[in-house]
Every structure is written in C-alpha cells, then in structure tokens.
Design goal:
Elements lengths: L1 H8 L9 H6 L5 H13 L1 H9 L10 E4 L7 E4 L2 E2 L1 H5 L12 E6 L5 E5 H17 L7 E5 L4 H13 L2 E4 L6 H10 L4 E5 L2 E3 L2 E3 L1 H8 L8 E5 L13 E3 H6 L10 E2 L3 E7 L7 E6 H15 L7 E4 L6 H13 L3 E5 L10 H9 L3 E4 L1 H10 L2 H4 L8 E5 L5 H11 L6 E4 L10 E2 L14 E2 L5 E4 L11 E6 L9 E2 L3 H9 L8 E9 L5 E6 L3 E4 L2 E4 H9 L4 E11 L3 E10 L7 H14 L8 E4 L13 H9 L13 H9 L3
Parallel strand pairs: 4-17, 6-7, 6-8, 7-14, 8-11, 11-12, 16-17, 16-18, 18-19, 19-20, 31-32
Antiparallel strand pairs: 1-2, 3-13, 4-5, 9-10, 14-15, 15-25, 21-22, 23-24, 24-26, 26-27, 28-29, 30-31
Helix pairs in contact: 3-4, 6-7, 8-9, 11-12, 14-16
The structure holds 5'-O-[(S)-butoxy(hydroxy)phosphoryl]adenosine.
The site of 5'-O-[(S)-butoxy(hydroxy)phosphoryl]adenosine has 23 residues, from α12, β20, β26 and β27.
Length: about 650
C-alpha cells in the first residue's frame, strides 16, 4: 500500500483530453466544472432542483433536501415519480422510441436488441406478471439471475409497481441467498434455470431450491428459461416466466411513488460477519445516477455504452440500467466471461457493436494486460472515445496499458470512486474538463464535499493521507440499512457524529492540485477483483466447518485481483493438516458464501498470534501473508513462538 502511495506521489504525468473530445463534452472546461461545482455546494437545493427538473415528476417536490432528522435525510420530499417511467415512458414520445435501449449478447453468441418501446412493453408485461403472483408495492422481490435481458426487465418491473428488488449476485451460494431472503422477508424470487459461464451452465435454480428449504416467506418463484438444463419445479410455488407472461396485458401504468419510497436493497460486506442491506430510495437515486451518467460518461445521443459489470453489483444497477436508461442511451449487456471462447471476447464485442464508451474494472484490465497485447490489437477499437474504471485503486502501469492498448492514446480515462452506499459516482475527473492523472480518481462530483481527516476529525493538509469522509448529504446516498437504523448510524455516522460526516471506510489523500487518490479500505474489508468481502464473513464461514477451531483472514497484494485472500487456520485436535483439508475448506467457503470468497492461501497453524488481551494481531498476519518482514511492534505478542511457526507455515 505505502509503495503504491509513493508511486503515485511521484506521478507527474497528466493526460489532457483530445481537443475534439473537450469541445463536444457536456462539461467542456475546468472553468465550467468550477462554476457548476461552486453552485452545487453553495446552493445545493437550487442545483439539485434544476437537475431533477430534467426528469419527469407526477407531482413536484415541496422541499429539495430535508436534514432535520440527519443522518436520516430526505430528498425531494412531497414529490412523486417513478424510476421505470423515467427510464422508459419518458423516451417514448421522442425519437428514442425505436432506439436500442439494451443490446444484449449472450455468452454463446446469441443476441437480443430491445428498443425503448419494446423494453417498455416487456417491462409492463413483467409488472403485470408480478402483480398476478400477488406482488404489491413495498414487497421485497429477490432476483438471482444470469446477465440476461429479463434481469433488467425484472428490475424495471419491480420499480414500476413499487416492489423493492434485492438482487443477489449469481456467483453467491445457496446459503448467501437464504441469509438475504431472511433478512428482508422476501416473498417472491425471480431466477433462471441457469446461466452460461465459460461454456458451462451455472445451475441457478438448483441453488434457489437449496436455499428455499428453509425460507417460509417465499410464496412464488419465477423461472426464466435460459440454458434448458433440467430443473425441478415445485407445484404451486414455481412458475415459468414465459407461462406467466403469456397471458398478461402489456399495459401497466407506472405507480406514482413517493420520492422516498424504497427502490432497492443491495447487500454488501462490512466489518462484521453479516452483510448489510443497503437501502436506496426512488427520487434521489434517480437524480444522482442520471446526472453522473450524463456528465462522467459524457453520454451522447448516438453513443453505444458498455459497462462490463454484473448487475448483481451496484455498478450494474446504476450504470447498466438506471442512470444509463434515464439518459435514453444505448446500454450493452454481456452475459458471460471476458475470456470465453478466447481472451479477445471483450474486444470482439467492442468492435461488433462499435462501442463508444467502455467502463470496466482494474482487475479486468490487469488480466487483459497479462493475456497479451495481441488480443486487442486484432480488432478495430476506433469507435471508443471514452474509457472508465471502477471498483479498486488502479495502478499506474495498468492505467497506461489501458490508455495505450485499448484507448490507442485517444480516449480520456475516468477513474470513478464510489460505493454501494453512495449509489453513484462521487470522485472522478470530468473527462472533457480536466486532465486525468494515472492512479488518482480526481475531483469531487457536483454536490459532493469530501475531506481527508484524522481519527480525531482534524482536516489534514494537502498531500497527507487520512480518513475519507463526506461532509454533506447527497441525493443518492443510502437511506439506512434495511431493518437496522441503529447499525446504519453506528457504521457510517457514529465516528464523526458531532460533525455529521459520513465515514467512507477508505483511506485517501488529496494532492496539492486537488486530485484525490484512494488508498484502500481501512476496516476489515478486502477488495478482491473489485468485489468487497468482509474478512469476518470469511472467518465465520471457515469456523462453521467441523474441521476448524479458529481462523483469521487477511488480504495480501495480488497481481491481478488487487487483493488475494489469505486464511490462517488452526484445525481441531484430530483433523489432519494436509492438502485435502485445504481443498475441503476452500469448497466449504464457496458453499457458504460463493466461489469469489475462496481463500487463495490457506496456512495451517497451531495458534494465532494474539495480544495479551486476546486480540488477533491482524497487521502482523498481513505482513506474513504478503511475505514482508514485519515492521510491527511485537512486544505485546503473547507467545513469540507463534510468530516463528507462522513464518514457516506454507501457503
Ligand atoms: C469500495 C466500494 C462502486 C462500485 C464498485 C465497488 C473501492 C471503488 C474505486 C476507485 C479506488 C475504489 C473503495 C470503496 N473503490 N472505486 N475508483 N479507486 N478504490 O463498490 O463493493 O461498494 O466497494 O471499492 O475501497 O470503498 P463496493
């Protein structure tokens, strides 16, 4: 980590946008950015009212931002609107009616293109289908699906009738589904028989069946047919999507929802074993994703935009579906793996659809760089005009590779910092307004007031690192943790309760030029391939195995994934310490959480290093996992022998 800081501190290269790009950009100069930013923080109510007025409201709000009960803040109070209406109906009276809303490519190479009009029809149908199954406004609907068009349709159908969707990433296990279903009393699950991943079927329905052995609140399961593998259908509970949709009307007026009615829940890992149900609401989230999509991706009417994330993560919610469709843009959606059938699949898709704006993750960029320059070189990538990254810090080497080999030195790169909690992009460059600096995210987006502070809440000088906080509320911020207002206050607002600041959990610094660089998480959260995982969550999965007495999990630097997972495990007395035990534990974690949480290293040890008061010395374990000499003071270590033995333990 500190190596990376040094590296970026030395970074003096600045990359200006090409003149033609800047000339046509929605925010076209630093002066334009400065002026708008100034307005957004000096008179946020006026700023956000202007933005919201670009969208459709059934009834205008009475008050833009109500902070009376902070940190429980309300935006656009008294207003009524509908996100699906703004993503669809709003465009049907314009030239966008027959424009592609979604261009979908399946992993096997099949293709579906849905115009705004057709997507609207399918969403209305699905909304009526859900109603037929008894789903009402405010009900929670879990969605566990592959990246197929029905996933976007299902989300928008929920939004249309005011049902709250809770999307569960298709890589998570049955146990993870069950926990999430229980946490929010889900009544209906939408899934598919399976999805394609590297040429194999991921059996999604089977995982849902396993989860539902113990979920009495779930009355209906709606199953999209995708892979045609055998699935069992439980009479009365399970329904084929195509059967339900066959005889429902394709007209369904959008529900007039309160600006603060919930839109969705999305679970994300935190410092404890239990994922947090991040709750986003209607009006503010819509306005935030709309405006960031418009300016950060500089969307033009003729653009083809592709975000490679899975909709199971927040990136897909905000920047494949809601923000992009609210702008009436064309969103590409791809079902499968980046290297199937070959490591050139992404570039083939860019070339095929003439993608103009491309948004991906540093881990993917590092993987492509490793797979070889010849793969992108084979394709015509000249349609690209803007590139983006998100999810974790990008190392300058990977940034330069992206710039040269994909952007062909002709595309600005936006490095967008945000979180599931923030709902939309918070720190970035505006691509036509200012240069990009490899490794730095950039400046605050409109309305965002970040600061770097000490543990005591003192602001630090430029160039010094500290805790990244956000001082004022913004429209798309999370409203609470589903069913747990106390935990919401505690996790995000307790530390700086006096000041009312939002604690991001990230460390960062701001250089003299005002560009923020994100260093990484400061809590017990690790970032594996841009996916957030709690070390405690993996630890509790490990100790739930009958083999394990005690476990401690830490992250370590990993060339491609950003961070890898290292588990220090002490087994129960009679268990054999061998490779078979390692494999069993890896499989156990995959079963409890999902394959993404499988430890890269498992090190067996007789005991974990603890302080005299019994706290596991994680920093020391991090040093060992990374193969570094320990720099930490070990005088409080309870048993020095443990340290020597740990060093000997092999990964
Ligand atoms: C955490 C949030 C937001 C969509 C994907 C991740 C890290 C995110 C960047 C970036 C450095 C970044 C932070 C943040 N992160 N974007 N551009 N540069 N770090 O969402 O799972 O909620 O994770 O991802 O550590 O706190 P998430």
């Amino acid at each position: 980590m500190s190596q990376q800081i040094d590296h970026v501190l030395e970074e003096t290269r600045l990359f200006d946008p090409p003149a033609a790009f800047a000339a046509g950009a929605s925010v076209a100069s630093r002066e334009a950015y400065d002026a708008l930013y100034k307005k957004s923080v000096e008179d946020p109510d006026a700023f956000w009212a202007d933005v919201a007025s670009e969208l459709h409201w059934f009834k205008k709000w009475d008050r833009v931002c109500n902070k009376d009960n902070a940190p429980f803040v309300k935006w656009f109070e008294g207003g009524t609107t509908n996100v699906a209406y703004n993503c669809l109906d709003r465009h049907l009276t314009t030239a966008r009616k027959n424009k592609a809303a979604i261009i979908w490519e399946g992993e096997p190479g099949d293709q579906v293109i849905l115009t705004y009009q057709e997507l609207h029809r399918r969403v209305c149908q699905a909304a009526n289908g859900l109603k037929k199954l008894g789903v009402k406004k405010g009900d929670r609907v879990a969605i566990y699906m592959p990246m197929v068009p029905e996933l976007a349709i299902a989300m928008l159908a929920c939004a249309r009738i005011g049902a709250i969707h809770s999307i569960i990433f298709g890589g998570f296990s049955a146990t993870a589904i069950r926990d999430r279903v229980h946490d929010s009393d889900v009544s209906c699950i939408i899934t598919a028989d399976g999805g394609w991943r590297r040429g194999s079927v991921v059996p999604l329905k089977a995982a849902v069946d396993e989860a539902l052995e113990n979920c009495p609140t779930v009355k209906n399961v709606l199953v999209v047919e995708r892979t045609k593998n055998d699935v069992s259908m439980e009479e009365g509970r399970d329904h084929w999507w195509h059967d339900v949709m066959a005889d429902v009307s394709d007209e369904c007026p959008a529900e007039e929802l309160d600006a603060e009615d919930p839109l969705y829940i999305l679970y994300t890992s935190g410092s404890t074993g239990k994922p947090k149900g991040i709750l986003h609401t209607t009006g503010g989230y819509m306005v935030g994703t709309y405006l960031t999509s418009k300016h950060v991706f500089d969307l033009k009417e003729e653009d083809t935009y592709w975000c490679t994330a899975d909709i199971g993560w927040v990136t897909g919610h905000s920047y494949i579906v809601y923000g992009i469709l609210a702008n009436g843009a064309t969103s590409v959606m791809y079902e499968g793996a980046p290297n199937h059938p070959g490591p050139d699949r992404f570039w083939q898709i860019v070339d095929k659809y003439k993608v103009n704006v491309f948004y991906t993750a540093p881990t993917a960029i590092r993987a492509f760089a490793k797979w070889g320059d010849e793969h992108p070189a084979k394709y015509d990538l000249s349609s690209l005009r803007l590139l983006g990254t998100v999810g974790e810090p990008i190392n300058p080497e990977a940034w330069i590779w992206y710039h040269e080999k994909i952007g062909r030195k002709n595309c600005p790169i936006v490095d967008t910092w945000w979180q599931t909690e923030t709902g939309c992009i918070m720190i970035t460059t505006l691509p036509g307004a200012m240069p990009a600096k490899p490794g730095s995210a950039g400046v605050p987006f409109f309305g965002v007031q970040p600061a770097i502070v000490t543990e005591e809440g003192e602001e630090v000088d430029a160039g010094h690192s500290g805790l990244l906080v956000v001082k004022e509320p913004w429209p798309s911020m999370l409203r609470t943790l589903y069913g747990d207002d106390e935990r919401f206050k505690e996790v995000y607002f307790e530390k700086f309760a006096k000041q009312g600041w939002y604690l991001t959990g990230d460390g960062a610094f701001c250089a003299k030029d005002g560009y923020y660089m994100i260093i990484g998480r400061l809590d017990d959260v690790i970032n594996v391939s841009g996916h957030r995982l709690g070390t405690m969550e993996i630890e509790s999965a490990l100790v739930s195995s009958e083999l394990v007495a005690e476990a401690a999990v830490v992250g370590f630097p990993h060339d491609v994934k950003g961070q890898g997972i290292c588990a220090f495990v002490s087994l129960r007395g009679d268990a054999e310490v061998d490779d078979e035990a390692k494999e069993k534990l890896r499989a156990h974690v995959a079963h409890e959480i999902g394959a993404i949480a499988k430890p890269d290293q498992i090190r067996f040890t007789d005991a974990l290093p603890k302080t005299r008061s019994g706290k596991i010395m994680r920093r020391l374990l991090r040093d060992i996992a990374a193969g570094n000499e320990t720099t930490q003071d070990t005088t409080t270590l309870e048993d020095f022998n443990v340290l020597a033995k740990l060093r000997e333990s092999e990964a």
